[in-house]
TrEMBL record:
This is Methyl-accepting chemotaxis sensory transducer with GAF sensor. PANTHER family: LYSOZYME-LIKE PROTEIN-RELATED (PTHR32089:SF112), METHYL-ACCEPTING CHEMOTAXIS PROTEIN MCPB (PTHR32089). Residues 309-511 form the Methyl-accepting transducer domain. It comes from Klenkia marina. InterPro entries: GAF, GAF-like_dom_sf, MCPsignal_dom. Gene3D superfamilies: 3.30.450.40, Methyl-accepting chemotaxis protein.
Length: 511
């Protein structure tokens, strides 16, 4: 696809060695991730070798995507394929040759411009030489580094094979730098997890724990913006609850108005998966209403994890950056640990709040029971007093009936005496003959009246006797009831003691 000729021998210069040393120094200083390693390598070579252009290409499925461009030739390359962020097939141009062979492709004025539109654009911009350098790991091309220069490049001619050595050196330095970065990230992740745990652990209620978790996760892991979405049990949708950080006014306004069903958007995906979900480019979420605003606000990558309490998802926490990042295994593991720890803490706080509410309800119930017991005690005391008063009145009635009985007996004796006198009068009237006949009639009537009086007094006496027996029975029953009520008061007192103990226990739970 291209022709390689032998250009004029390059002027020997130590710049190449110095450039390699500088690359190693920069990588040894530490990198954040793989992209950062490529960026530092490319920027350093462009600066140290005086190149006019350097670009980083990363695989994206069956395509390649530009991940960074540097140097004064960037404007001239703007219309070249891939420079605007669009995908380019892995088989196209000199980059395709480098991917297929796994070897550097060096370019000069003898290279076939028709084979590569990017080389054509570079030449029009003033480049005279170039190189497409594959970075190979495990037999696979993991990146392409594209360089153009308006002056002779090093490693041409007899030293051209050093471009391949440069590729191996960059790969080794990249591995070492990434290993160091991974180690540092692991340390940072552990520190971040510790910070989050400490912050959430200091919260005394679920609401403050959520806010502490959102803020501490965002700051500890270096996210630009974070938000918590609470599950609405009525509509079964996630609705905005609280936020931390800032990603622009428009993004915030869209966030405040948004809601997500299960499986929809970043939060909905985390809800459905019940696991951590990472999106390298938020624009990829076509069902996320925040994606367009995110692009305009410069929000790039996002991550979200569910908050699970009592085995159920109660909400999600999402976080965003203004730079496109990759989520390492270490960072993913750390965030999953954070999600689990936050969920556990909230679960415990929710249980504590439920227990406290139950304790308060128990305390209120005990208070009402105690009041009812006190009222019952007072009623019992009043009943005892009333029963005793009734017993006294019944006793007085019994005494009164006894007195009435005495009067009846007196009347009965008078009736008996009257009857006897009437009988004597009748006898005397009979002796008087005709003269005593009228007196005999009167005496007979008096006798009949005395007999009726005696009968009436007898009936009244019997009724009074029955009433006395009834009053004695009622009095005995009242006294027995009074004793039972008194014993009920003792039971009530013991109940009060038990309620007092329960009240103290409820107060201890509430505290």
């Amino acid at each position: 696809m291209f022709r390689q000729s032998t250009p004029s021998p390059a002027v020997e210069t130590p710049r190449d060695v110095e450039a390699l040393e500088r690359v190693i120094e920069v990588l040894d200083a530490g990198v954040v991730d793989e992209r950062d390693a490529y960026r530092r390598t490319t920027e350093t070579l462009v600066a140290e070798l005086g190149l006019c252009y350097g670009a980083i290409w990363l695989p994206d499925g069956e395509h390649l995507v530009v991940a960074g461009q540097y140097g004064p030739l960037v404007p001239a390359m703007a219309q070249a394929p891939g420079s605007r962020g669009e995908q380019v097939a892995r088989t196209v141009g000199f980059g395709g040759v480098a991917v297929r062979t796994g070897k550097p492709v060096v370019l000069d004025d003898s290279s076939d411009g028709d084979a590569c539109l990017r080389w054509q654009a570079a030449v029009r911009g003033g480049a005279t030489q170039g190189c497409v350098l594959p970075v190979v790991e495990g037999g696979a091309v993991v990146a392409l580094l594209e360089y153009y220069s308006s002056t002779p490049l090093p490693f041409f001619g007899g030293r051209g094979t050093k471009w391949q050595a440069l590729g191996r050196l960059i790969a080794h330095a990249r591995r070492a730098a990434l290993a160091s970065a991974a180690l540092q990230e692991t340390v940072d992740d552990r520190s971040a997890v510790t910070t989050v745990v400490r912050s959430v652990g200091e919260a005394t209620d679920a609401r403050s724990a959520l806010r502490a978790a959102l803020e501490s996760v965002r700051t500890a892991f270096g996210w630009a913006y974070g938000s918590y979405w609470a599950l609405d049990p009525q509509t079964r949708t996630l609705r905005f609850d609280t936020e931390s950080g800032s990603a622009g006014t428009e993004f915030r306004e869209v966030t405040l108005a948004a809601s997500f069903a299960e499986g929809v958007g970043l939060s909905g995906r985390a809800w459905r998966a019940r696991d951590l979900v990472f999106v390298r480019d938020l624009a990829e979420l076509t069902d996320c209403v925040r994606a367009p605003a995110a692009q305009r606000a410069g929000v790039r990558s996002g991550v979200c994890f569910p908050v699970v309490v009592g085995g159920e998802v109660i909400g999600t926490m999402d976080f965003f950056t203004t730079a496109t990042i990759e989520l390492s295994e270490s960072r993913s593991s750390a965030l999953r640990n954070v999600a689990q720890l936050v969920s556990q803490r909230l679960d415990g706080l929710h249980r504590a709040e439920r227990d406290a509410a139950n304790a308060r309800a128990l305390s209120e119930t005990i208070g009402r029971l105690r009041q009812a017991a006190d009222d019952a005690g007072r009623v019992a005391d009043a009943a005892v007093a009333q029963a005793r008063a009734m017993a006294s009145e019944v006793d007085a009635l019994d005494e009164a009936s006894t007195s009435v009985g005495d009067v009846i007996r007196i009347i009965s004796r008078i009736a008996d005496q009257t009857n006897l006198l009437a009988l004597n009068a009748t006898i005397e009237a009979a002796r008087a003959g005709e003269l005593g006949r009228g007196f005999a009639v009167v005496a007979n009537e008096v006798k009949e009246l005395a007999r009726e009086t005696a009968g009436a007094t007898q009936r009244v006496s019997e009724q009074i006797t029955g009433m006395q027996e009834t009053t004695r029975s009622v009095s005995a029953g009242i006294l027995s009831t009074s004793d039972e009520i008194a014993r009920l008061g003792d039971v009530q007192a013991r109940m009060n003691d038990v309620l007092e103990e329960q009240a103290r226990m409820a107060a201890a739970f509430d505290a």
